[in-house]
Amino acid sequence: MKKITLALATFALAGGLVAQENRFSLGVELAVPVGDLGKAYSFGIGGTAGLELPFGDHIGVLVQAGYISFMGKDITAYGVTVKNDARGMIPIQGGLKYYFSDNQEGFYAGLLAGVHMSTVKVAYYDPSTLSLQSKTETNTNFSLAPLVGFIIGENLDIALRYQLIFAKEPEYNASTGAIEDKTVSNSYLGVRLAYMFGGR
After folding, report:
1. pLDDT for residue 15
2. How many other CB atoms are there within 10 angstroms of residue 107's CB atom?
3. Which of 25, 133, 135, 196 meets the CB 3.0–4.6 Å disulfide criterion with 50?
4. Coil, helix or strand for 116?
5. pTM surpassing 0.85?
C-alpha cells in the first residue's frame, strides 16, 4: 500500500511541476503470460494510468501504474485436477521513450523499469493439522520491459512490450515434503492501448 501511495504522490508532484506539454493517459492492458507464469495462468486484462514528460525533440520520460488480473488455468498433478485462482498484479514502472520522428509522434522504442506487486496463494505445511494448506501472500519483484509503439493521430498510443519479472516463489517439493524457493520466469507479452489527454 505504501508503494501505491508513493506512486500516486509521484504522479501528483510531477503533474504540478511540469509544463502543459506533458500528457496524461489511460490505457487498457492485454497480457499473454509466458515462461513459468504461462504454465498456471492464461489471458490477463487490466488498466494503467500514465504520465509522459517530453524532453527535447525525441525523448519522452514516463511513469505508469495500474492493475492486471490473470485468469487461472486448470492444473493436473498426481492425477488430481484443480482450478488455479486468478492472480492480480500491480505494475509500477518508469522509463523512457525515443521517438524516431518528432516527440509524441509516430514510431518509438523504449524501456520501462520498476516493480510488479503480486497477490498469490502459496502452499505451506500446517503441523497442527498435518496437512498442506494455502494462504494469500503479496510479493514485490523487480521488473523490466523493452517496448515499441506508435502514436495514432494525436491521442491514441498503442504499445507492445515484453515484460520481464524477476521473482522467487515458494514451491512444495513432493519428494522432500518441504517448501522451497524456486526462481521463476513470471513474464508476459503485453499490449497497451491508451488515450492521451491534451495536445502535442
Report:
1. 47
2. 12
3. 25
4. strand
5. no
172 neighbors 159 (Cβ within 8 angstroms): no
Cα–Cα distance measured from residue 130 to residue 151, given in angstroms and rounded to the nearest whole number: 57
Give me the residue label for grid cell 500491480. Answer: 90
Report the chain's C-alpha Rg in angstroms: 20
Query: Which set of grid coordinates corresponds to residue 87?
Result: 492472480
Higher-pLDDT residue of 81, 190: 190
Q: How many CB atoms lie within 10 A of CB 109?
A: 14
Tens-digit pLDDT profile for residues 37-62: 888 888 999 999 999 999 988 999 99
Among candidate residues 85, 9, 92, the one with its CA nearest the CA of residue 41: 85
Interatomic CA distance for residues 120 and 130, integer angstroms:
23
- Provide the residue type at 145 as one letter: A
Question: Given a cut of 50, is residue 179 above it in pLDDT?
Answer: yes
Chain-centroid distance of CA 129 in Å reads 37
Residues for the chain: how many in total?
200
Q: In this structure, are residues 86 and 115 in contact, taking their beta carbons and an 8 Å threshold? A: no
Beta bridge partners of 93: 64, 114
Query: Using CA atoms in the order 159, 96, 34, 67, what is the torsion angle rounded to 10 degrees?
Result: -80
Residue among 47, 48, 49, 52 nearest 14 (CA): 52
Mean pLDDT of 127-149: 82
